[in-house]
Amino acid sequence: MGELSDKVKKAQMGNEKYMLQILEKFNPLIKKYNRQLNYDGAESDLIIALIEIIKYIPVFKNINLQKDNCIVGYISISIKNKYIKLSKKYMDIVNNETSLDLNILSTSEEDQRLIDNRIYVLDLLDKLPNYQKRIINNIYIQNVSETDLAKELNISRQSVNRAKNRALNNLKKIAAKQMNNIS
């Protein structure tokens, strides 16, 4: 029976001192795969994987895992497999990310005006109470009829209309106030 086998058994029984010693022993392997993965958090992912591997090495059931060289091989292969899995996961994330299309940034003057108007309207809407914002959003942005909105909110169509009119009046006041502040 080897020294590493004893440490693994003690680590599996909850002895943190031996768990740390094993982690230290395999730190160069972790560093190697961390460099190859080259993403933030890769080292942490690999350390967590190593801790899980240590916890579940069947040293009590498999007689071959009583030898240090077998345990080293088992851990090395397990870490390599985890590296492959993390590498594939990271590559999937990178491949699925949307690249920046610089043509989007070169908009025409008309497009820029529309964008500015939309930002201005959304800013105005944010200053309304939530109920009024919801009414305006549903009627003018989502194109929901007042009747359908009344059914959804379980109120009368007249109540929706009154709330809409109050919201429009509030928007006019807010817009006028902002225009006065600019002048």
From TrEMBL:
Residue ranges of domain RNA polymerase sigma factor 70 region 4 type in the record: 120-170
Gene3D superfamilies noted in UniProt: Winged helix-like DNA-binding domain superfamily/Winged helix DNA-binding domain (1.10.10.10)
InterPro entries assigned: RNA_pol_sigma-70_dom, RNA_pol_sigma70_r4_t2, RNA_pol_sigma_r3/r4-like, WH-like_DNA-bd_sf
Signal peptide annotation: none
Domain of life: Bacteria
Protein name as annotated: Sigma-70 family RNA polymerase sigma factor
